[in-house]
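This protein record is not my work; I was only asked to verify it. Take the sequence as given and treat only the tokens as open to question. I have pasted the whole thing underneath without changing anything:
***
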Amino acid sequence: GSRGWSIPDHLFLNEIPCNPEIRDWFYRDVCDAVQVALQDASLLESCAGRLKIECVPPELNPEMDSFRVGTMLEMVREIAIRIGVVMGRRVKVCIQGSLGEGIFTGMPLMLNGMRRVMEGMDWQSREGEMYEGLLINDIINRRTGEVAIPGNKEGRVAFGEVGREQVEDEDEVFIIIAPQSMVGASVYEPLSQMVEAAGPNRTVILINPRLKDRPSSSNVMSVQGRSQRIAFAASFREIFHFRLLYTGTTFMFPIQGALRMNFANSPRWTLFKRESTTSPDDRNGE
């Protein structure tokens, strides 16, 4: 299915944090899928510009304690740079804000503080650096309140939240990091409004979305409107997928194989089986 592509040897994904070379391998793989998809006009027309990435090794799986915000943001940074610098398009990276009302306002734990970390990352956008002038937003020093890195109106990467008001005429591609609902608050309304405002001629990319309903006693995400929410979630075309496979009664260990699909190689899915090249006796002696 992947046209001769194979998983590299010694891909030890149970090591947290992973070897930087392993992370870079995932980043390149995902970036290739995004670039090929954005260059495929027929694909974008068929899905109205709605794309989805599901990349969930342990460090990127929001359902695991091993999830690392830094790994997620590094991958998003590489995607944004590939789109903005290599492809020359303006991209807006979005993280949802608080959901709910009144005292029930809140944010999923994995997204809490992510925007601040993203802005504080090294984007190599300062004067004299590799991507000078890349960022559109001013980067504010959180301690002093002063502008640490002035934004560039002609830049290629902007930051935002999830909502209709975040869509600007200049934006060409939107990356939304792990959109998800909470018990008592749904992300469906702001996300669907944003996608509608972007329209079919611009691209919205969801990274590791969790759009399933989370019903509560307050009747939020109940039966009413469920078919529309399911149809909306299903409207995004998956262009990359990687996840590990485990035995039916265990979680995270032992790894039995992996499931992968990369639109840059082939739209077909490939199932990989883990094989050990050493015997149990050899491993015990190491």
Summary: The mean pLDDT is 85. Helices lie at 20-38, 41-46, 69-86, 114-120, 188-198, 226-234, 280-285.
